[in-house]
Amino acid sequence: MKxxxxxxxGDIYLEVDAEGHLCIPCSEDLPFGQLQDAIVMTPMNDIESxxxxxxxxTNDCRPxxxxxxxxxxxxxxxxxxxxxxxxAAELLNWHAGTHYCGYCGGIMDFHTDISKVCRSCHREIWPxxxxxxxxxxxxxxxxxxxxSKTFKxxxxxxxxxxxxxxxxxxxxxxxxxxxxxxxxxxxxxxxxSQPWPYPRNIMAGFEADYLKGKLRLQFSELxxxxxxxxxxxPRIPDKLSIARRLIDHWxxxxxxx
Length: 257
Fold this sequence. Notes:
By secondary structure, the chain is an alpha+beta fold. The protein has two domains: 2-96; 130-256, Nucleoside Triphosphate Pyrophosphohydrolase. It contains four helices and 16 strands. The N and C termini lie far apart (52 Å). The mean pLDDT is 92.
């Protein structure tokens, strides 16, 4: 038996089990379509796992399967399955862009389940992650919430940004806060991290306190922003994100007071 992480243009196919729940397909052979360039992955529940891109099929050709965005699968899968689905998506994205060696142009072959080696120059490569920070800023009984221009719906999140070359996570937090809001912060503390397979990121979460400065939004990056109390919070990110974990933690602390 094998677990099949099946993707089509970024979406994942899930199977409807006997109880009507959605799950990762598990069968000896590929549930539908033709076996292509499958990637062997970390086993799940001691069962071999495979990741591959498949062609989109009509409902008649795939009865019992549902296609959805990877983000949406968070609300249907257990944690282990969702995390492995994210890893599968990241590996497929990496594999699609590394058929040829970036140094000599030779063909790249899988060496381990997370590395490739060039047939010609024998250089070994691994999947590259883009690290990013996200920070919750407190000011008394308020937090700073902002709305990025990249948000697809009308919710507010936290200041975030990509780590630059030669920069620590902490340096990145101070720079992003200054660039996007014009504020200075203090009491910076690490909160936790989260893989973010959209497409290949890792998010490092922080908490900090407002020190000084007048809010001045960087409108090339942000649409809206402001200070919010517990009683007037706007719509906030969904449960799958570390942004929500940071905000929920702040809400819990506020409710204890």
